[in-house]
Amino acid sequence: MSLPEELSAARILIIDDNEFNVQLLEAVVTEAGYTSVLSITDSRKAEDLYRAYQPDLVLLDISMPHLDGYQLMEQFKKIEQSSYLPILVLTALQDDKTRLKALENGAQDFLTKPFNRLETLTRIKNILTVRLLHRQVKKQNAELEIKVKERTEELQVTRLEIIRRLGRAAEYKDNETGLHIIRMSKTSARLGELAGLSAAEVELVLNTSPMHDIDKIAIPDAILLKPGALDHSEWERMKAHPLIGYTLLEGHDSDLMISAREIALTHHEKWDGKGYPQGLKGGETPFNGRLAGIADVFDALTSKRPYKAPYPISKAVEIIKSEREKHFDPELTDLFLKNIDDFVAIKEAFPEIEKGHVNDEDFKLSERDENAEKE
User: What's the rounded mean pLDDT across residues 350-354?
Assistant: First the structure.
């Protein structure tokens, strides 16, 4: 009986309390060309040996002291879990009740004592062939799952990159470096983390905050870059910009796009209901929008704009504190001010630089990372 290499190397475990049966089976399988064979006569050692050896086939006696074959099959099932039991039952009993119970417990086939050599080797080969095919399919499925995961991650990365670049494109309208969206998104995410958001929720805030001012694309430069105060009509045009952003981002109901729409639409709302465009009050504003609102204002206050010089951190803190329960969620305001060093560190980590020096690495998801109204 010539064996293929993958079969000859298969791991066979023999469990029988009768030493003679063990020696007989060992001789039969080794003479047939199987090279990896272990045997025990004490069933109490079977579970640990099964875990360590990870057999491709178990030749298992049913009637044994201490633990019988049925009890061992229960142990092995817990180890295998998603796989089937590669068990060939050894028994001198030929009644239907014994066979049925063995099958119900996971046995694949039977060998009746005394053993017939040719029948023994044929049944062993059959079970091992199925076992190895099963492992091959399982391996292929695992490899396919990895490829699908890699492809899904690649699509996600591409989608996030598009979001970031669109955010940067809008930001270049009045902030040539595009670093505002990095600081603002990291500040929003860090504040969300401090507020108790899950890691996944923090990632979502980080990845969708860059789209908060996508609508700047549609605002005329004469308004957006005006160095002085806006007149009434210009201000009304400015207040409509969140609706433009919402419209640009609608039409897809992934978590990513829902969060991006919420932030774009609501980051200029105020706790007292005097914000725009909807005049939402208190908790009516989505939590992501409230996070982005504080982060946006803080970075705008401390950054240079065509219409203002940067404020020192102390002045920005003073303004944000004064806007507690007016502009900003009071609990988030307290949390922000209590952890102001975290947000100053983000600010200092991404100082304004020359145009074109933004590094895509600054957007890495593993890092923790606005625009104030022109009033």
Answer: 71
As a whole number of angstroms, the distance between CA 39 and CA 49 comes to 10
Residue 164 domain flag: no
In a domain, 166, yes or no: no
Letter string b/e over residues 179-189, b meaning 16 or more CB atoms within 10 A of that residue's CB: bbbbbbbbbbb
Q: Which residues are within 8 A (CB) of 337 and not within 5 positions of it... i.e. 6 or more apart?
A: 317, 320, 321
> Domains in the chain: how many in total?
2
Residue 361: pLDDT band by 50, 70, 90 thresholds?
Answer: very low
Beta pairing class for 57-61 and 11-15: parallel
Q: Which H or E element spans position 61? A: strand 57-61
Residue 114 has pLDDT above 70, yes or no: yes
Please indicate, yes or no, whether residues 182 and 324 belong to a single structural domain of this protein: yes
242 and 121 together in one domain? no
Domain holding 57, by residue range, is 5-142
Confidence of residue 337 (pLDDT cuts 50, 70, 90): very high
Structure tokens at 245: 């952003």
